Amino acid sequence: MKKFIILFVFFFSIVSFAQETTKDNLTKLYIATFDRAPDIDGIEYWLEANLTLEEVAQSFFDQDETRNKYSTTLSTENFVLAIYQNLFKRVPDTAGKEYWIAELDKGTISKSLFILAVTNGTQGDDALILDNKTEVGFYFMLYKLSDLVEAKAVMSAVSKDTSSIAEAYKKIDLYAIEHGTFQPLPKKTRQTASYDSDGNSITDKSLQDDGFYALGTVANYERDSTKNVVTDHVTQLMWQDDTAVTQTQKPYIAQANYDTGDYSNTSGDTAVSYCGQLDLGEYRDWRLPTIDELMSLSIKGLSSSSAVDSIFQNISSANYWTSSEIADSNDANSMIQDLDQSIWVVNFESNHDDWINKSDNRPFIRCVRSIGDTTTRSFSKDDTTGIVKDNKNGLYWQNKYSTSVPNINWESAIQYCEDLSLGTYDDWRLPNFNELYSIADRNKYNPSINTNAFEEVIPHHYWSSTTIADKKSYAWSVNFYYGYGDSGDWQLKSETNRVRCVRSPH
User: Fold this and answer.
1) Angle at 334 between CA 330 and CA 338, to 5 degrees
2) With contact defined as beta carbons under 8 Å apart, do 354 and 347 qualify?
3) Scanning 141, 335, 500, 503, which has the fewest C-beta atoms within 10 Å of its C-beta?
4) What is the dihedral of CA 354, 357, 361, 367, to 10 degrees?
């Protein structure tokens, strides 16, 4: 009897109140009816159709896809079984199945309202499965994919386990790369828990930090152990990963050139020449990575003992060379002494960027090669709304942040973004480290950012929402004088810094 009462309540709520036609509700309707992710064109069409969700659900049964999937000769029982299979990959319990068959056969409820009732009535594991499938559906739409076979394939293995979302994301990434629609968000930092200013674990979701949102692109690496290379499908880069990565140490410039002040001459037995001459995996177009490329391997949300993905079999907890010069006039006011003698490196012991002397022979080398399109970053500024859009990944950034607003501590920065309403949007948040680092332009200094797009930039520390895993009362920040996020920017959360809020493209 209890089961029937619950079912009746759900049914009554469906027929009594018109449901809002939101992207979330439409995505669930697509999953339930078609057993696939929605295509972005379809979602946009129905959002603009000015119909209730009930009317949209009924309209689905006028579509060829629905007619082909559910023939007129399909029995009521098989229709009910099909919807449960679409949603949960299981059969309904006997009492529930018999109830719905009876209601459908009597005409008490239509097939479209039955689908809405089932999606609204999910509980327990079923609710987790549908939520996970909805998240995957959003990600599919983000890359403007529309192939119906692919839309079905990405849903096939999604379960209540959150790891199934990551696997579905990897499939979608590969589809988007193939279709030329891939615009990756900065990678997840992999922080999954929340920590307050004292480093205490927060489990009640009251703190909207990086651990709360856990947003970004899922890392998608593939290792070829025969060739000793690792392909990063997100950044479209291939990385050297043989034992030489932990054994080869060379200077950026030879000592003789350093002694004569020829700081731009990388000839001789140097890190640059090593990559230029490397023959690995039948590839001969290796080079030193830029600072942005090498930092893409850094995992900020985990402890420094997990500085890079475990798919890499060779890593030294030390400095690795980049090919990126430091931007500055090198005058008397430079923050870095002897600027032209230094260059960016990434340290995989403390998991941060840094700069060192070019003649230092202690750093290691991990060479890289490009395997696909690397889209140049550009920004669109809307002076009316005060918002900047990153055209590469679709992130929206708060532009004007008044210089009259004082520096604020970490938790206040989080709350400031949560409370922000800007350009009709109220879903702003404090960016994670990877998002914030992505808008710093290390080819510029004071400030190190695109000043044609971003205004009122203070060349100082800006908060990220990412906690330092080894020091949980500290958070990562990015300094926009040079665009760095090194160990000198391990900021106590009680300290005060600047803030720039972000919102996701979906």
Assistant:
1) 55
2) yes
3) 335
4) 50
Single-letter code of the amino acid located at 483: G
Q: Quote the pLDDT of residue 12.
A: 44
pTM (predicted TM-score)? 0.80
Q: Which helix (H) or strand (E) holds 490?
A: strand 490-492
Predicted confidence at residue 14, as pLDDT, reads 43
Q: Of 205, 129, 142, 197, which is closest to residue 175 (Cα–Cα)?
A: 142
Spatial CA neighbour of 239 closest among 293, 177, 163: 293
Phi/psi-derived region of residue 228, left when phi > 0, alpha when psi is between -120 and 50, beta in every other case: left
- Residues 6+ away with beta carbon under 8 Å from 63: none
* SS3 category, 459: coil
Give the type of residue at 404.
Answer: S
Cα–Cα distance, 322 to 353 (Å, whole number):
10
Whole-angstrom Cα distance, residue 140 to residue 38? Answer: 8
pLDDT at 297: 95
Phi, then psi, of 274 in degrees rounded to 5: -60, -50
Q: Do residues 314 and 245 make contact, with C-beta atoms less than 8 angstroms apart?
A: yes
Cis peptide before 406 (omega within 30 of 0): no
Three-state SS string over 93-126 comes to: CHHHHHHHHHHHHHCCCCHHHHHHHHHHCCCHHH
What is the number of other CB atoms lying within 10 angstroms of the CB of residue 194?
Answer: 22
Determine the pLDDT at residue 185.
86
Give the model's pLDDT for residue 457. 87
pLDDT at 105: 93
Six-digit token string for 47: 């959002």
For residue 268, the model assigns a pLDDT of 96
Instruction: From 317, 302, 292, select the one nearest 232 (Cα to Cα).
Output: 292
- The confidence score (pLDDT) of residue 9 equals 43
Three-class HEC string of 24-90: HHHHHHHHHHHCCCCCHHHHHHHHCCCCCHHHHHHHHCCCHHHHHHCCCCCCHHHHHHHHHHHHHCC
Angle at 466 between CA 182 and CA 205, to 5 degrees: 100
pLDDT at residue 101, rounded to an integer: 95
Q: Structural domains in the chain?
A: 2-179 (no CATH), 221-370 (3.10.100), 379-503 (3.10.100)
CA-to-CA distance for 246 and 493, rounded, in angstroms?
Answer: 35
pLDDT of residue 329: 64
Alpha-carbon distance of 240 to 218, in angstroms, equals 21
pLDDT of residue 5: 38
The segments of the chain whose pLDDT lies below 50 read 1-17
